[in-house]
């Protein structure tokens, strides 16, 4: 299911990258990973931003 998605929640991105959700938050805070804010409580990460 995750293979066909273009946008991921922080939890989904963490699972794909093999890291913790907290580490995803840290990467976003340090501007090492870009997240798109949809609302004040919802942010998503694009597939292109997590693929190397």
Explain this structure to me?
- The protein is α+β, with helices and mostly antiparallel strands.
- It has a single domain (2-50), classed as Arc Repressor Mutant, subunit A (Orthogonal Bundle), CATH 1.10.10.
- Helices cover 40% and strands 15% of the residues.
- The chain is built from three helices and three strands.
- A hairpin with a 5-residue loop joins β2 (36-37) and β3 (43-46).
- α1 (10-17) packs across α2.
- The radius of gyration is 10 Å and the shape is globular.
- The model has no long low-confidence stretch (mean pLDDT 91).
Write the layout of secondary structure elements.
Elements: E1 7-8, H1 10-17, H2 21-29, E2 36-37, E3 43-46, H3 47-50
Helix pairs in contact: 1-2
Sketch the major β-sheet.
3 strands, antiparallel
Give the percentage of residues in beta strands.
Answer: 15-25%
Ends distance: 20 Å
Number of domains: 1
Radius of gyration from CA coordinates: 10 Å
Helix content percent band: 40-55%
By helix and strand content, what is the structural category?
alpha+beta
Counting H and I runs of at least 4 residues, what is the number of helices? 3
- Tell me the CATH architecture: Orthogonal Bundle
Total beta strand runs: 3
| Arithmetic mean of pLDDT | 91
Strand order of the largest sheet: 1-3-2
Organism: human gut metagenome
Domain Helix-turn-helix: 7-51
Protein name: Transposase
GO molecular function: DNA binding
